[in-house]
Write a structure and sequence with these properties.
Chain C: It is a multi-pass membrane protein. Chain B is built from 9 helices and 10 strands. Chain B is of the alpha/beta class. Classes of the chains: A mainly alpha (262), B alpha/beta (263), C mainly alpha (265).
């Protein structure tokens, strides 16, 4: 029987894994910043420039408001048309990509197509479509349709793969044809989530439609790019304010629509 | 008794004949080795046997949810194994199935779930627009009255208890106006009192429609109590086929193996 | 029993009106858009031919050009994405905390945080890139700041929501014990939300890889610059090389993230 008090393990042991992790991160930052040639002086010089720049942006200049309104409307048109078609097309493509319902020869190409649509930033699609169909909103519409398919298609296929197949079994046993099985056994389980994805993507399309104009695919992005090039920074801030306002309003509307379909 | 649930004579030869049914999930290892069975007339047949002996497989082979490896299954003289496409679906309409886990669409209402039984009879377009014929709707209400769920017609399926959900499942199966009812362990997810109620309900609807019922059951006493005939399966073969009264402990030992559970 | 009074309707009258209104609005919007958008039908008809022509010019992929022109930019892109994400974690943490109404009880701060988050999300990364290129000059510095600022909205919003869903039990216990606010945050909130935080960070890094690959188009560094050059010089086979590289990097990043998710989170 020892007289000394029992040695108990320390309650808060240092987590060496986490500490070395943090150290690695810091080392990485230093190394990466060096290879990117980001030095402190550049940041300071940049801050200086930024101050002057921000000064030129205030107050925002709405003098050319007709141009602004026209382009905003075009932006809206692009967003609306591409969202409508994008959502419509994503429904069957997402269905075809569901591995628990469809045969391999259908799911592989569908999933491959969706992956391609998703991997590229919409701007890349915009550039390609501008080359293909010329400047203007058509390129923008096609761009955002593909972007929508990439997003909604993937999430929708994943949602379908998570459903319970028991009602599907029951409908098949009752002799229902395949489309009826989809309508009654599959869709009720995933429709809410599909509407969520669709409203989210419509919102995203609106945001994206404000910038694809930078490469010529229509909408207010073109006006913005032109303003930058002409150093009309007060016009730039006016445009930015409109974009933010537009996006916020659409977000609110999307909430309402989701409520109706719950 | 309304028109909808009046007795109807079984269509000519609504008998089920299974001949030498064999099912191998893995080549060489047969779950069902050689099953031959005939079911006809108004009767309730309980199939008993240990887990894994192929009871569910047998039932699902009948309506070809699972493809048999060999053998013949004849319903009313038609060989089910030779059918495909819309012919197979037409045949499936004649077989009503009740599931262990109810297999309802949780988000839809009770009414919509019951009407699902008619999906084999209407086109997908009408199904999408929910344009069911008036007499189907009337029959659905009658069935809900019969199973005691008239107050729940608009309730969502996931608001119901287990016993209530199984009643909806039974109503859905009967909506098909089938020639035979298959029930795959309909009471395994339910408490003892509800299990008895469900078995009583199964017998009642079968009596009203004058059709045979084939029930998988693992509670032997329940099976003995409600069935006219007991079929015992063991290791993929039928080892007992007869009256419940004749089912002795020796038979049960052969079917299930081991003695302790019998005491 | 009269068949007529056994009617069944799927939606109540109010629900039907609401659904009809939504469909009507959508229909009207769609019709208006079609009529007023300026699409030249000839271009639409010509589109398939133009697209196939484009693909012909982009084939075969010029892999030979990789080490000379693309490799360095690709690495640069990854650095921009990673540094940008790390920077945003530092920035978004306080903003997310300010936006969570249960953690930060000052409505003014909540409002400010929400405003920052919304603006960050509403403005596209390309627009932010143009802004920062104008401020800091073309190059990777603008790129890193663009990625960081753009991600604040995403990370901050999700992090704020995770905080709002945290259990208040441990918080109450610590407040009862008289702990200061920072301690409460570190010991009651942080342990609950840190898995979500790292998961969000990983998710955003994946997206940032994709974003970093295009901000070079407006001069913010990374492989977008190579893409821009090749496009301006009509070097289509190099364009397809860049696209293939972007695709490969994005897929690899996603695989990496999925693996990390499985093992650690």
């Amino acid at each position: 029987m020892s007289d000394s008090p029992m040695k108990r393990p320390a309650p808060f042991r240092p987590n060496y894994w986490a500490r070395s992790g943090y150290l690695l991160v810091v080392l990485y930052c230093i190394w990466a910043a060096q290879s990117l040639e980001i030095s402190f002086d550049r940041v300071i010089a940049g801050m200086d420039n930024a101050q002057r720049f921000l000064g030129a942006m205030v107050p925002p200049n709405f003098a050319r408001w007709q141009l602004l309104i026209n382009n905003l409307l075009e932006t809206l048109q692009i967003a609306i048309i591409s969202s409508a078609f994008g959502v419509l097309i994503s429904l069957p493509i997402g269905l075809m990509a569901a591995r628990n319902l469809m045969p391999d020869w259908l799911t592989w190409p569908s999933r491959g197509f969706i992956a391609i649509c998703r991997s590229f930033h919409p701007v890349i699609f915009a550039i390609l479509f501008v080359k293909a169909v010329g400047f203007g909103p058509l390129a923008g519409i096609l761009t955002l349709i593909f972007a929508s398919i990439g997003f909604i298609g993937k999430l929708f296929a994943e949602a379908i793969e998570e459903i319970s197949l028991k009602p599907v079994e029951a409908m098949r046993a009752a002799g229902a044809p395949f489309p009826s099985v989809l309508i009654f056994a599959v869709l009720p389980q995933v429709l809410n989530r599909f509407i969520g994805f669709a409203t989210y993507q419509t919102d995203a399309n609106l945001r994206n439609s404000t910038m694809i104009g930078i490469v010529g695919a229509g909408g207010i992005g073109g006006t913005l790019a032109a303003a930058f090039q002409r150093y009309d920074y007060d016009f730039v801030s006016a445009i930015l304010i409109c974009i933010i306002a537009l996006v916020m309003v659409s977000e609110l509307l999307a909430q309402r629509v989701k409520g109706v379909f719950r | 008794m309304t028109q909808a649930t009046a007795q109807h004579a079984p269509s000519a030869g609504a008998s089920l004949v299974i001949e030498h049914l064999r099912k191998e999930y893995v080549r060489g290892k047969a779950v069902l080795k050689d099953i031959s069975l005939t079911v006809e007339g108004r009767s309730t047949t309980a199939i008993i046997g240990p887990s894994g002996t192929g009871k569910s497989t047998l039932l699902r082979c009948i309506n070809r949810l699972i493809e048999p490896t060999a053998g013949r299954i004849m319903l009313g003289g038609v060989d089910l194994c030779a059918l495909r496409g819309s012919d197979l679906r037409a045949m499936r309409r004649r077989i009503g199935m009740v599931f262990q886990e109810f297999n309802l669409v949780e988000r839809l209402s009770v009414m919509e779930n019951v009407l699902c039984g008619r999906l084999g009879y209407i086109s997908p377009m009408r199904a999408w627009l929910r344009k069911f014929p008036a007499e189907d709707i009337s029959r659905a209400y009658d069935l809900l009255d019969l199973v005691g769920l008239s107050d729940f017609a608009q309730a969502r399926a996931d608001e119901l208890s287990g016993g209530q959900r199984q009643r909806v499942g039974i109503a859905r199966a009967v909506m098909q106006q089938p020639d035979i009812l298959l029930a795959d362990e309909p009471t395994s997810s339910l408490d003892p009192k509800t299990s008895v109620e469900i078995m009583e309900l199964l017998n009642e609807v079968a009596n009203r429609n004058n059709i045979p019922v084939l029930v998988n059951i693992h509670d032997v006493s329940l099976g003995r109590r409600f069935a006219d005939r007991v079929v015992g399966m063991s290791k993929g073969l039928v080892v007992f086929d007869g009256d419940p009264a004749d089912l002795a402990n020796d038979h049960l030992k052969e079917i299930y193996g081991g003695e302790d559970w019998l005491k | 029993m009269n068949v007529a009074d056994r009617e069944w309707v799927r939606f109540t009258r109010a629900e039907r009106y609401a659904r009809f209104t939504v469909f009507l609005c959508v229909g009207v919007l769609l019709a208006w858009s079609f009529r007023t958008v300026q699409v030249i039908p000839e271009f639409l008809m010509d589109a398939p031919h133009q697209v196939s022509d484009l693909f012909q010019r982009m084939w075969p992929v010029d892999f030979g050009f990789y080490y000379e022109g693309v490799h360095a930019s690709l690495v640069e892109t990854l650095h921009i994405a990673t540094l940008g994400t790390l920077l945003t974690l530092v920035l978004a943490l306080p903003v997310g905390v300010m936006a969570a109404r249960n953690v930060c009880r000052a409505p003014a701060l909540n409002w400010l945080a929400t405003f920052i988050l919304v603006s960050s999300r509403s403005v596209n990364s390309l627009v932010w890139a143009m802004l920062f290129v104008a401020m800091f000059g073309p190059g990777t510095l603008a790129g890193v700041i663009t990625i960081a600022v753009r991600s604040i909205g995403f990370v901050g919003k999700l992090f704020g929501e995770a905080l709002e869903e945290a259990h208040s039990g441990p918080v109450e216990a610590m407040r009862a014990a008289g702990a200061p606010w920072v301690s409460i945050f570190l010991k009651a909130y942080w342990p609950q939300v840190s898995p979500a935080f790292w998961s969000i960070a990983l998710f955003r890094w994946d997206i940032n890889v994709r974003e970093s690959s295009v901000i070079g188009l407006v001069g913010a560094g990374g492989i977008g610059v190579a893409l821009d050059t090749a496009l301006n010089l009509f070097q289509w086979t190099r364009v397809s090389l860049v696209l293939v590289c972007i695709f490969a990097v994005v897929v690899l990043a996603e695989v990496l993230v999925t693996q990390i998710r499985k093992r650690i989170i």
